[in-house]
Design a protein that fits this description.
The chain is α/β, with parallel strands linked by helices. The protein has two domains: 292 residues, Zn peptidases (Aminopeptidase, 3-Layer(aba) Sandwich); 129 residues, Alpha-Beta Plaits (2-Layer Sandwich). Helix content is 31%, strand content 24%. The protein is built from ten helices and 16 strands. The chain has a six-stranded mixed beta sheet with strand order 1-2-6-3-7-15, with helices on both faces. Strands 8, 10, 12, 13 and 14 form a five-stranded mixed beta sheet that branches. Helix 1 packs antiparallel against helix 4, helix 4 packs across helix 10 and helix 5 runs parallel beside helix 9. It starts with 12 loop residues before the first helix and ends in a 24-residue tail after the last helix.
């Protein structure tokens, strides 16, 4: 793997930072190669089997940078779901390099969604075409890991003085599991310092928090039989029996969409953020000659901070109970298979400096930044609850055109360099030192730029 060679004459910290930043573009090939190796490991959830392999790759990439790695495995009784969607060891990786400086925890989730239909390439092979780096997880969020590695290599090669000791958190089950890895780390007291979460966008954004989300698997069980028998007693069609329930869910979807949030929406949005219900998948039946004996319905529900999870779940369970009473020949079962709680306002004293670093990395004017929340979700609501600390910085590679969670997901070399520039700047002791929070500053509640 290429190694950055420091140029002669760099003596002072600001000069080293400038040279390291300038050299990122020349070193980006190594980041692209790293990203290709990451994309090649299938960490899609469900089922989530590739986490241990991914941890091994990260240990290999981080060892030359002087990081000590610790694997933390989430106990199976916490993440196993009743529907059996999750499989494989939940291996989280903590990578530390301790010098006594304050800690900046850099968070990534290593899982992706499964590859959607419509990919024109192998989703587990990184392909570069017309400036795009395409592959499953390229933007969400393996590309962010590659960008941070690029920044850390530059800092080491040019001996850039750092303001913080970076601690990398490479975590499991953000994409909808029952027990995200960062929740377990927080509850075990393994998180230090303030957190920079890379599950965000490459836009000029100040994060205002986000919705919660849960997934419910509804299983409808009938009786499989020969489709040509011609008698009602031959079988009970689970798919036909589920049609009234699907119509009820569709009606609930429309009602749920009327519930809006006080969270500020994206500046380009046409209206307020609203709750959502999605019938995300249907699986049932085996062959044309057989009456289907079972149907699985996955329902995704996104709820704003103003709603209670228990109430939103009870609405769906009430519809299932009504369907059960109306069709006694069929069995209706529900199982919660994933849950992320809302993330409250993540403001704090480190935001102004991170905002300045993003402006430098992505070449945004400071007055371009706006504050908004999202109906997309995060596992950091659990971190806020477990630690009592609200501040969470947010950045990433997502753009409206990145096709995150869809076929053709991609990022670009330019965005890898831009994010690496932002991270390198933020970690550097010589970047905006006047914005480094004083040790005596209250840990929470400091305001950041207004929208």
């Amino acid at each position: 793997m290429p190694t950055l060679i420091p140029r002669c004459g760099a003596r002072l910290g600001p000069e080293r930072l400038a040279l390291a930043t300038e050299d990122l573009a020349g070193a980006v090939d190594a980041a692209v190669a790293d990203l290709g190796r990451m994309v090649a490991i299938d960490t899609s959830f469900p089922p989530g089997r590739g986490c241990a392999r991914f941890a091994a790759l990260m240990e290999e990439l981080l060892a030359p940078l002087g990081f000590d790695c610790e694997r933390v495995v989430v106990p199976p009784d916490l993440w196993r779901d009743a529907a059996g969607l999750a499989e494989g060891e939940r291996t989280n990786l903590l990578a530390r390099r301790k010098t006594g400086r304050p800690v900046a925890a850099l968070y990534f989730h290593v899982d992706t969604v499964p590859a959607a239909a419509g990919w024109q390439q192998d989703p587990f092979r990184l392909v570069e075409t017309d400036g795009r780096l395409s592959g499953l997880g390229a933007a969400d969020m393996k590309g962010c890991i590659a960008a941070v590695l690029l920044a850390l290599r530059a800092a080491k090669a040019f001996d850039v003085p750092l303001a913080y000791d970076p601690m990398l958190l490479l975590c499991t089950d953000e994409e909808g599991g029952l027990y995200p890895g960062v929740r377990y780390l927080a509850e075990q007291g393994k998180l230090e310092g303030h957190v920079l979460n890379f599950n965000g966008s490459a836009e000029a954004r100040i994060w205002a928090g986000c919705f919660g989300m849960f997934n419910v698997m509804i299983t409808v069980k009938g009786v499989a039989a020969h489709a040509g028998e011609g008698t009602a007693a031959a079988g009970f069609d689970a798919i036909e029996g589920a049609l009234p329930l699907l119509r009820l869910l569709q009606a609930l979807k429309a009602m749920v969409a009327t519930r809006t949030s006080r969270l500020p929406p994206h500046p380009g949005a046409k209206g307020p953020l609203a709750a959502r219900l999605t019938i995300a998948s249907l699986h049932g039946g085996t062959a044309g000659g057989q009456i289907p004996g079972a149907l699985s319905i996955l329902v995704n529900r996104r709820y704003p901070p103003e709603e209670r999870f228990e109430d939103a779940l009870a609405e769906i369970e009430a519809l299932v109970a009504a369907a059960r009473n109306a069709h006694p020949a069929l069995a209706f079962e529900t199982a919660l298979v994933g849950h992320l709680v809302p993330t409250a306002d993540p403001a704090g004293p480190h935001w102004p400096r991170w905002q300045r670093a993003l402006a430098k990395g992505f070449d945004y004017p400071l007055d371009a930044f706006r504050r908004w929340g999202a109906a997309s979700c995060s596992d950091f609501g659990y971190v806020q609850r477990a630690t009592g600390r609200s501040e969470v910085l947010l950045g990433g590679l997502a753009r409206p055109e990145s096709r995150i969670h869809g076929p053709g997901e991609h990022t670009t070399r330019r965005d890898l360099i831009s994010l690496a520039t932002a991270v390198l700047s933020y970690l550097s002791a010589d970047f905006a030192p006047e914005l480094v929070p004083h040790p005596g500053l209250p840990a929470e509640g400091a305001p950041h730029a207004a929208a």
